[in-house]
Every structure is written in C-alpha cells, then in structure tokens.
Amino acid sequence: MRDAACSWIKDNKERWQLSIQHTLDDGTEGGRSRNRDRGFTHQTWFIALLIGIACLAMVIALYMCFCTAWASWREAKAARTEMDEARLLRLQRAVDAVHTCEHPMVVFSLESLRRFGRLPPHEAVRGDLVFLDNYDDVVEFASSHPILFVSHQWLGRDEPDPDGTHFTAICGAAQAIQRKCGVEEIYLWCDYASVPQRNRTSQAAACNSLAVYSNAARYFVAVCPSGLHRDTGERVDASTYLARGWCRLEMWAMMNKAGGAAAMYVYDDAGLAPIAGRRDWYDAAMRVFEGDFSREDDKEKIVDNVLGLYARALRQAEATTPRSRRRFSAAPPPPPPGLDDSSHTVRSSATPTTVRFLEATVPPSPELSVRSTSRSSPRPTLEKILTSRSFHTLQSSALDKLRRRKRGSRECGGDAGARDWCRETVFPELYFGGLVEALEEHMANGDLVFPEGK
User: Fold this and answer.
1) Which of 65, 103, 428, 430: disulfide with 205, CB 3.0–4.6 Å?
2) What is the pLDDT of residues 144-183, one digit of tens each?
3) What is the 3-class SS of the chain, one letter each residue?
C-alpha cells in the first residue's frame, strides 16, 4: 500500500506539486480578501461616525439658532406689545384731554375788559375772572353764556399788546359780534388774561386744555390789525398772523368742531368779516406744523393736542351717520342746530384712511386736488363744505372704507399723491410717526373709550 502511494506520488509528481501550489494560492488570496473586507468595514464605520458627528453638530447648531431666534422673536413681540400698549395709552390720553380740563377755563366779560382799560396779564386780574374748574362747569356755563375765543399775534416778546392796539381791536370785535349775532352779554377767552403767565406748569396745563376751550366757545375771532412788533420792528398784520403756528392751531381747533367754521371771524383794519370764503385762511389752519413757533420744541408739545382734535372730529362725524352705521356705543351729542345740509351734499371719492376728509378742507391748488365722483357736479364751495353735516359724514365714510380695507377689500378711490401730500402736511411724519394710523385703526376697532354724551 505504501509502495503504491509512493509510486503514485512519484508518477504524479507534477500533478501533486500543482495541487499543493493551488492550495497555497487559495489560502493567500482568501487571506488578502478577508483583510481587504476587514479594512473596508473599519473605514466605513469611521466615515459613518464622522457623518453622524457632523449631523449631530448640525442639529445642535440648528437647535441653538432656533432657540436664539425664538427668544429674539419673543423679546421683539413683547417689546412690540409694550410699545402698542404705550401708544394706545397715549392716544387714550389725547382723547380724554378733549373732555378734561387740566387747567380751569378762565373767561371774563366784555364789561370787565373795558374796565381793565388794557389787555392785562392773568395774575393781575384774578379777582375779576370767571374760573370754570372742570369740564361739566365749562359745558354748563357755555350753554347759557356765549363765549368768544380771541386769537391774536403778540406785538412783543414779553407783553402781547404794549401800545393798546389789540385792546381796542378786541373790544371792537366783541361789540361787532354782539351786534351781528344779536348777543347781549358775551364772555371772552384770551390767552394773556386767561392763561397763567408766571407758572410754567399751569401754563402748559392750560395749553393742553385748548381743545376744551375751543369746544366751549360759540364764536372765534382772529384779531389782527396792522401794527409794529415792539422788539423786532416787524410789520404785523393778517398775513403775519396766519404764519404763526399757535394761531394756526387755535384756528384749526375751532374749525374741526361741528359748526365751528361758520362762527369764525377775522377783525382787521377793515373791520369784522367772516373767515368763510377766505380759502387761504383754511389752508393755513391745516398747516399747523408749517407755522412759525418761537420755540421749535413747541411742535412736539402740541402733537397730542392735534391728535385729540382729530379724534374729536372723527367722533363728531360718527354722530352724524345713521344709527345702523354707528361704530361706537356711547351716544354722542346731536349736531349743533342751525345747520342745513340739504343743499350742501358733498360727493368725494373715498380713500382707505380717514385723512381723506382733510383733503376736502384744503382749497384747490396745484399741490392738491380732490376728485368728484361726478364730472358734471361742480365742486362745492369751501364754506359750504365746512358748515354742512356732509363734511363730517365724509369722515365716517372713510372709517367704513378703513374697515373694508382690513377685510381685504381693494376698493378705494382718490388720488394717492394728494392723500400722501395731505397727510404729510397736516400730520408730519417727523412729529407723528405712526400715531395717526394707530388712532384711525383703534377708532375703527372701538379700542378708544369716549365719555358718554361728549
């Protein structure tokens, strides 16, 4: 057997060597293959680990960015909410100021003025003045005693009437209004005698109550006879009166009151004349912030006054609309008697904001035009607009347009350029920012509280 095997190996030497070689070759290739597989597996796990770490880092970074953005959004939202609340509080105070006397309204009779013999300072004639301490007192007194609001330009830095020119003119204007309107007794409000001159805090409080004073006045007269300013030597007359910022504010306060424009007069060298028909006067009254102020910071002080007056105008417009269209729960007072709007229908294209009603008060000019909805209908005269209920109805119509805009309606008319010009002229962005838009929005939403019956 052994011999046979050896003989087979000997006879098949080449085959045996080839078989051994194949076996060795197979073992070497398998090892190399297994080594390559093992190396590939380690490399794959390493790459996967790197990718996992990168993904985790990315997730952590995204989470941190999200947390930072969320915190920033919450802070911004809280700041915006705080700002909106502060703005709403400011608007509410401006609305309240129209019906609140921060300082008593001080008036005096024409007989007392004659007895003074001059235009006296407030502190010198306290005992001869009538003090109306609160809004109810003002309303009660004004209902039975006609009050004349006297507006004039000072002829000196420290004294308004050093040579008595305005004293004579004021007495003449009051007498002329008495004769024209059939009034026996009349009381006057005039800044130098009615507003504290020595106490600046009381003086500021009286200025903040200007809307109350103008609302109580039955008549308004701009006293502007020709004269010379004592300190500057400047010629003073109606044109310089119209340039004064405070004079413009007093006119605008009276003008935007229901029926106020019909009771406004000017007394100059020619005597007493109604302001109605003098379009340059209405135009100047609308441009309060373009007027001249002795101190530039006075413009910032009157912003809330203008906002309160604007809110009052919109409120009165709401009072003239049909009950089914009213947006406020408080019952406003009826429109003043004696106004007949049957022949003074105002047709005007509406705009998305309530500022459109202001455009109707500015006379036609290259800068501003108000389009009529009917080409065949002539534009009503300015005095008819301002003395009609339709003038105030325009404001309410604008409120309705504002509500439709909030619901997504795109229907609006008018000249956008004229609207922007009007807004920037009456409510300059530098001083008002977004206060006017906020006032309109809050009034449309019913967020502002108006006193009952006021």
Assistant:
1) 103
2) 999 999 999 999 988 999 999 999 999 999 999 999 999 9
3) CHHHHHHHHHHCHHHHHHHHHHHHHHHHHHHHHHHHHHHHHHHHHHHHHHHHHHHHHHHHHHHHHHHHHHHHHHHHHHHHHHHHHHHHHHHHHHHHHCCCCCCCEEEEEHHHHHHHCCCCCHHHHHHHCEEECCHHHHHHHHHHCCEEEEEECCCCCCCCCCCCHHHHHHHHHHHHHHHHHCCCCCEEEEHHHHCCCCCHHHHHHHHHCHHHHHHHCCEEEEECCCEECCCCCCEECHHHHHHEHHHHHHHHHHHCCCCCHHHEEEEECCEEEECCCCHHHHHHHHCHHHCECCCCCHHHHCHHHHHHHHHHHHHHHHHCCCHHHCCCCCCCCCCCCCCCCCCCCCCCCCCCCCCHHHHCCCCCECCECCCCCCCCCCCCCHHHHHCCHHHHHHHHHHHHHHHHHHCCCCCCCCCHHHHHHHHHHHCCHHHHCCHHHHHHHHHHHCCCCCCCCC
